[in-house]
Hints:
Rossmann fold, 2 domains, eight-stranded mixed sheet, four-stranded parallel sheet, globular
Amino acid sequence: MKVLVILTGGTITMVRNDATGALHPADTETFRAFVPELFTSPIQIDMLPFEPLIDSSDVCIELWAKIARTIESNYAKYDGFVVLHGTDTMAYTASALSFMLRHLSKPVIFTGSQLPIGVLRSDAKENLMTAIEIASEQDEQGRCRVPEVCIYFGSALLRANRTTKKNAEHFFAFESNNYPSLAKAGVHIFYRTTLIHYEPKDAKLQIVTDCDDRVVVLRLFPSIRQDVVHSILSTPSLRGVVLETYGSGNAPSSEWLYNELVAATSRGVVIVNKTQCSTGMVEMGRYDASINLMKAGVLSGYDITTEALLTKMMVLFGEYGEDTDKVKAKMQESLAGEISLDLIKHK
């Protein structure tokens, strides 16, 4: 089995300078020296560092495209891929890749750490070694065990586009509130195979690398000012809005908010309703407080995460350009398991 480890940066790729105590990116040989056991295992592991390694706060759509192209160009050579990434924006990058890599039949596992690889108590080794094992794992039929874009962190394997960072302090840094973990790692790795998505056997990888960053997250709060909302929604280049609302998708019933939303959707801006709650879903029409949103042409985001919704918008606008109707239609579909449409239809 062969696994390609792609290093983009983040805490997991850092080492401490003994003289100054400051953290700095490790070169490949230094990184290898901290985990020599990886290179004596039956799994053949190759490492590909991006140059320069970056802090995940500096992640942008160009990096997402670089990761996608790297996986595409190496797809035939490896059985799985592990992407080392900073934790702060990992959920954004991993979500984006779940929409950019189409018909995936091999694992792409993102991981990182809360402490650098060279620190005695670091969580980096366990996260890295288990991510590699998952990326190389095959089932009894010889197919990849988890052919999805995932995040492995703190003993849990999570579908990437269901994941958000929940904690900056603890080793269990990520959560997936609206979808169960795909696997749990202890003495053994227990896979929940019924939850894993498998493409048809003859599926061929396709990638989409054009993304459009003319989107914004607008979070509502009590007494939000009209001039603030207007300045955001009337931005000339704006194409998409993640509207973070209360509870099951509710918003103030003020006439001015309705008028601002209508003005934006009439110009072709796609607005999608996302609850501010970490668990649960948008149910537009359940309360009167969401009726105006429906009348204004706002779409439901169902139980999607903010990270997945934002990156899904970017990918769809990059793919379909000015075809707003196509974007709106695709926003209401589950493209990579990011929303629970089957469950919603049976509510």
